[in-house]
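Objective 1b: paired records.
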Amino acid sequence: MSESNDKELLYGLEERIAPAPAFFTAIQHVLASVVGIITPPLIIGSVLGLNAYLPYLISMSLLASGIGTFIQARRFMSVGAGMICLQGTSFAFLGVILSGGMLVKSRGGSPEDIMAMIFGVNFVAAFIPLLVSRFIGQMRRVFTPLVSGTVIALIGISLIKVSITDWAGGHGAVNFGAPANLGLGALTLLVIVACNRIEVRWLRLSSIVLGVVVGCIAAALTGHLTVKPLQGDWFALPQLFRFGFKFDWIIFVPIALVSFISILEAVGDLTANCMLSQQPIEGESFRKRLKGGILADGISCLIAAAFSSFPNTTFAQNNGVIQMTGVASRYVGMYIGGVLLVLGLFPFIGEILQQIPAPVLGGATLVMFGSVVAAGIRIMTQSPVGRREMLIIAIAFGIGLGIEAVPDVLGQFPPIVGNIFGHAVTSGGVLAILLNLLMPAERSISVAAQEVKVH
C-alpha cells in the first residue's frame, strides 16, 4: 500500500480498535442504515394490512440484520466476507413481495396467511445465494468489475433519490420542499463535511453522529421535531416461523429471480467494500471474500425468513460511512451487529430513532450515497474503458434509469414484469450482464498491429 492510501484509513481491515471508538463508529453505521432496514416492513405492512404486527416485523428486521452483520464481520470458517458488510432488509424484493401478498389476499387469505406464505417462499429462495456462492469462481465472466461497478453506481443513484426526498421533508409531507426543511438538511450536511475535513480523529469518527445531533437540535429549536409517545412493546423475543410456513410456485418464481439479481447487487457492494478497505478486487483472496460474503447473505436470508423478517442483502449505505470515517476494521462490524441485535430485542429504541426528522436524515445520507456512486465509477474504471465498455455502461444506465424514472413504459406488460424490472438496479444490472456476455471484447491495439505486420 502506498503512503497516501495508508493515510486514507484510520483503522485497516484487521486492526483492532478500542471499544469506545468502535462503538461510536458502529452507531454511525446504524444511523446510516436503520431507516433503510425498517422502511421495507413499514411499506409492506401498510400495503398488505399487517399493521397489527408491524412492531414485531420491524423488531425482527433489526434482529436479523444484526445477526447477519455479525456473521459477515466475524467470518466463521468460510462463511462471511470478513469485512464491515452491514446486512439490511432489501428494497429489491418490495415489488414481488407485495404482488405475492396481494395474490394471497385476493384468495381470501388472512394477514397470518399472507405472512406464512411470504416468509415460507423467502426461506426457500434463500437457498439460491447459498448455491450460487459455491460457483462464484466459475462466474467470473458475469461478475466483472465493469458489471459490478455499473450496478454499484445504479444503486447509489437510486439511493440518492431517497435522500433528496427525505431532505425535502419526506414522501407525502405537507411542507415538502419548504426552505426550513432544506435548511435543516444543509446544516446537517455542512457539519458532517466540516468534521470530516478537520484533522482530529474523534471528530472524523463522529462526523455523522454530530451532524445528526446538530440537525436534531436545530429541528427542536425551530419546532420541526415532534416527540411522539412510545406505543410498542418494550421487549420482544424472536419466535421461529411465528405465522407458519406455506409455499406457492407462482409466488416463488419472481422472488427467486430477484434473489439471483440481488446477488449481483451484493457482489457490487462487496467489491466496493474491498476497495474502500484497501483489499484486492481480483485474484484468489477476492474470490474467497465474494464466496464467503454471498454465502453469509444466503444464511442471513434464511435467518430473516425463520424469524419473520423480509430478505436481507449487503447494504451499500455503510460503504459511504467507511469512506467518511476512515475506519475499515472488521471488528467494528461485530459492534454493529450487537447494536442492531439490541435494537431488535428492544423495539422502543427503534421507535425513538424513527423520530429523527426526515430532512436531517436526508442531509446525513446524501453524502454517503454519493460516495456509493463514486465508488461504482472507480470500480468501472479499474481497467481501460474502451468503446465496448462505454456502450455497455451507456445502455445499462440509459435503460435502467429511464425505466425507473418512467415506470409506465412497462405498463402494457404483466404486472410481474414491472415489479421485477421497474428498478434501475434490476433492469440495468441484467442488461449489463447480458451485454458483457454477448458483446465480443475488442482486440488490443498491440495485437492488431502485430497481425498487420504478419500480413
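Objective 1b, second protein:
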Amino acid sequence: MVTRQSALPVSEPGLYLRSRERGFVAHMVAGPLRLRTVRTLTATSLRGHGASSDTAGTAQLILSELVANAVRACGEDVPLVIEVHLGDTGAVVGVHDPAPEQLPRSADTPMDSADAESGRGLPLLHLLCSDVTVTASPIGKQIRCRLRPA
C-alpha cells in the first residue's frame, strides 16, 4: 500500500488547508473555485494514500453532493470544514456546516426520474456509502460518509 503524503496546495483567502493522517482538512468558504481545488485534492490525496481511482472519483462525487446541500441549506459563501482521509475500512468524507437544524431528509423522488431536479442526494449517499452519520456539534452539524470499499 502506498503511504506517501501528498503535498497540499498553499492556503489562500477563503481556503485553509492542513494535513491529517492519510488525508487533509479544509476550512473553506463555499465557492466554485475553492470546491474545485478541494475536489482535486480529494482525488490526489486518496490516490496518494493507496485508494483506487474509482474510490477517489466516488469521494469527489460525495464531496460535491455534501457541499451543494450545505450551500442550499445555508446560502452561498457558507463556512465549511471538510475532512477527507483514508481510514482502516475505506475512504471517509465529512462536511461540517453551521446549520444544525437543517438535517438531511429523504424525498419521494425516484432515482431514475428524468424530470426531477433534486431529491436524490440522500439515496445516492446510501447507495455509495457503507455508513452515513449526522452529528450535531456546538457550531453546527457534520455529515460523515464512509465509502463502500471498491
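The helical segments are 32-48, 53-74, 121-128. The beta strands are 15-20, 23-29, 79-87, 90-97, 129-137, 140-147.
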